[in-house]
Amino acid sequence: MKSAQNPTWAKRHRGLLKALTLALFLLASVMPLTVLANESEKSTTFDGTTTLQTIITSSHRSEQNRLRDKYRHPAQTLEFFGLRPNMTVVELWPGGGWYTEILAPFLAQKGQLIVTNFAPNQNKQALAFQKKLAADPEVFGKVKVAQIDPPTELTLAPDNSVDMVVTFRNIHNWVKAGYADRVYAAAYKALKPGGILGVEEHRGKVGISLAESIKTGYMSLDGVIAAVEKVGFKLVGKSEINANPKDTKDYPGGVWTLPPTLSEGQKDRQRFLTIGESDRMTLKFVKPKAS
Question: Of 91, 175, 213, 259, which one has the greatest count of Cβ atoms within 10 A?
């Protein structure tokens, strides 16, 4: 075989050499860009200056979760509550972690997120949530878990140590279980004087009975306010951020008829998708400072 150093060989194959050189140059140029693109897809970096909106639109959240933003309005809701990145915040009953995905990175550098969870061997959702936290230490590595076992064990944090407690669509479950007042009291105990309790909950028709609330998941606005204030909180704000006037609140299957549950399956599915998620109250309470 002739060497590429041979002038005759090089002359005969000059075109081939040029093509090979160009191909190698292009490959060297493209490979770093490809690697960087792949790394960008795999990693998400947040710091103390990352805004809520940046976190909300970040790829660490699933497309399915981001599609619900139009109903849940996370940025507006958290801003209404007064969330700041240097706060210590307790999220009550985080469920699958929809809001945890936003709160965790926002508070990671300057604040602290505490989430409640049942013992992982108690139910599948508790185990799934624990696995979710463990699977992404970059996002959830600094989250603390307060293990609860209501109604007897409801310690959220040391007394007077928390800036904010938030709950999203949980009150109807607490009322049904019979320990809503104990959860409110636990939140009050954990909050600093001047601390905030932020509430989002399915809003029922005016005058809805307790029995109907338990059956349908829709709660009385006045009833929720009265129950929360009974333990010492004071209502300081209401918002229509999560209102939905299309919600008629008269479905045989209750609030679970609507997205995201869609308990009726394919029956009238498009109708319920057109309505969207439930009409919700959004309330801000404060633990009064000592006079």
Answer: 91
The answer to whether 280 and 200 have CB atoms below 8 angstroms apart is yes
- Could you report the per-residue pLDDT of 35-54, keeping only the tens digit for each? 333 333 334 567 767 899 99
Residue located via tokens 């498009």: 270
Summary mean pLDDT of the chain: 89
Residue 135, judged by CB atoms within 10 A of its CB (0-12, 13-18, 19+), counts as: exposed
Its pTM stands at 0.84
Q: Which of the 8 DSSP states describes residue 61?
A: S
- pLDDT tens column, 181-226: 999 999 999 999 999 999 999 999 999 999 999 999 999 999 999 9
Which residues, 6 or more positions from 239, have their beta carbon under 8 angstroms from its beta carbon?
76, 77, 80, 282, 283, 284
Residues in CB range of 187: below 8 A, 6 or more apart: 90, 92, 156, 165, 197
Contacts of 4 (CB under 8 A, 6+ apart): 10, 13, 17
Which one, of 164, 161, 11, lies nearest residue 91 by Cα? 164
Six token digits for residue 224: 């929720």
